[in-house]
Amino acid sequence: MRRMVNADLGRVKRDVRIEQVFDNALSPQMIRVPILAIYAAPHNWSMGLGPDKAADSAAEKMEYADELTQIRAFQKHLPGAKVIRIPNADHYVFFSNRAQVERDVNAFLNALP
């Protein structure tokens, strides 16, 4: 799910719920191809979100909980999908963890019939 930080309130607001996407727009029967999903979960927050370390820590925990919710929903609605979690990767996981992503993608492709 996409999240936005409201700087005035210091709160993170949910924008779109993954369950809504599956419930309203997507059914597993619509997808008839192999699926590989690579998630950076938990994300690498080494750059931090702001000067307040306690707020950063709370935001990281909330973000990780939401990432897990998204991953579980994805797996629930697309049970045949191959889901890989790469801990402490950047949002652009294919840059921060290039070798691992290449191995995972190659393994996925080589396992296809």
Short description:
The chain is an alpha+beta fold and 113 residues long. It has 4 helices and 4 strands. It has a two-stranded antiparallel ribbon.
Describe this structure in words.
This protein has 113 residues and is α+β, with helices and mostly antiparallel strands. 43% of the residues lie in helices and 16% in strands. The protein contains four helices and four strands; from the N terminus they run E-E-H-E-H-E-H-H. The chain has helices spanning 18-24, 53-77, 93-96, 98-110, and strands spanning 3-6, 11-14, 36-40, 82-86. The strands form two sheets. The protein has a two-stranded antiparallel sheet with strand order 1-2. A two-stranded parallel sheet has the order 3-4. Helix 2 links the parallel strand 3 and strand 4. It is flat and about 50 Å long. The model is unreliable at 1-15 (pLDDT under 50).
